[in-house]
């Protein structure tokens, strides 16, 4: 490749590099730097505080609550959304009458805005006249306020995420299932292999690259999606649904403590980086790309 082609190549890549640096790397570096300072307010400039903001986290009960809630929320939504999406993909991978309609029904929650999904589920959860309460009353069970009670609020919010995410992940699993050669299924049928054995010995290993991709996205979404928290609970009741990203928003934009919010953001990025890298290293031996 001559020098002119190199110049053309770099010129084509330049806009992407500019946007990547301006909107990803530069804000990340700025956030890391701001986390070591206090928040500038009015004429009072920011003062270097070192690890002061990080020390403050250890003494902040809301931060501890947000971390615990985020861990529980992730532990529920990640495996549940992956398992449900895989089950849905296995179901619609077969050929039967109305399979296109079923696929569309499974995928429909994905195309809905999360704000709209949250409002739909608020109606489902509404005590007294909501869909879930109407079903409970039919069986003689008492009314329940799912998002208004600390014991059930977080699980109610997690259910919305699972319902929203499962259809999206199903598309990837369905695409992976369609790449499995039909000859393997025919050979397994001739050998008398059961469906469970074929799934465990053949299907699951062959779709591991997709499973890894979906799991990484599920982890990111578990910490990134908080729109439904804004609509449904606003972190309540009694911080029962206070997730880390929502706490960052409240700290930075409601209480205007941008330095502390920057430190919280650094912690969030560090958690996602460690978990993401750990997923790749732990799953690498079980992933077959060919």
TrEMBL record:
The family database entries (Pfam families) matched by this protein are listed as: BPD_transp_1 (PF00528)
- Native organism is Hoeflea alexandrii
> What topology does the record note for this protein and the membrane?
Multi-pass membrane protein
- According to the UniProt entry, the coiled-coil residues are none
Tell me the compartments it is located in.
Answer: Cell membrane
The ABC transmembrane type-1 domain, residue ranges: 67-277
**UniProt record similarity statement:** Belongs to the binding-protein-dependent transport system permease family.
- Keywords annotated in UniProt: Cell membrane, Membrane, Transmembrane, Transmembrane helix, Transport
Name of the protein described by the UniProt record: ABC transporter permease subunit
Query: Which regions span the lipid bilayer?
Result: 7-26, 71-92, 104-132, 152-177, 198-220, 259-282
InterPro entries in the record: ABC_transporter_permease, MetI-like, MetI-like_sf
